[in-house]
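Fold it.
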Amino acid sequence: MTAHPLDRPVWSMLTGRQSHLAEGDARALRLDRGYGVFGVAADTGAEAQAALAALVPDDGELWMVEDEAWPVPPGTREVKRAVLAQMVAGGSPPMPRGGEPAMIALGDDDAAEMAALAEHAKPGPWGPKTHLYGPFFGIRENGRLLAMAGQRILVPGMAEVSGVSTWEDCRGRGLARALIGHVMRAMIARGETPFLHSYADNAGAIALYESLGFRIRRQVHVLAIAR
């Protein structure tokens, strides 16, 4: 039986549509360090695990997202383990009542503000090039970037909603909901099915995503390692 590309999303990403962002070889790969911290080994064998360990930076971490709990490669140490709910959209989300708030496409000129917002909201690993993954959209008010959302992992026929962030003093206004819906509709218009990952114990976030048409596909495992 052919594996689903979301069973090993980082492997699917770095050997497929985003292989141009990969460092390494057939034994193990990691994402371009400017974009983020994701890495993956071909399998749990000794050769692949050693190759994965060699990709761990001296002063940082490498994160794996797998369909099963992954062993810690020799020469590295475990920093974090977590379980994620992997969710896939069943269709286009409902439009907000009264229509969408005004949104703008974000790019290089917004990179510093996006990084500051990501550092505050902590939507997941963020690097100096993360904003270049693909379309990111934001909501500004009086010049201030209040909230943003965009995409990250791309696999055949599917795109990951990611980077959803709102400043704490701007929450409760439906900004994240509106932005996620906008990103989803843009993906669907391109013929792609939206998916995302949420920490499995984040009931509030999962409820929001379910209200936008996402359903839990399965649980996947995160392992962060360092030297």
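Helices lie at 9-14, 46-54, 111-121, 175-189, 203-211.
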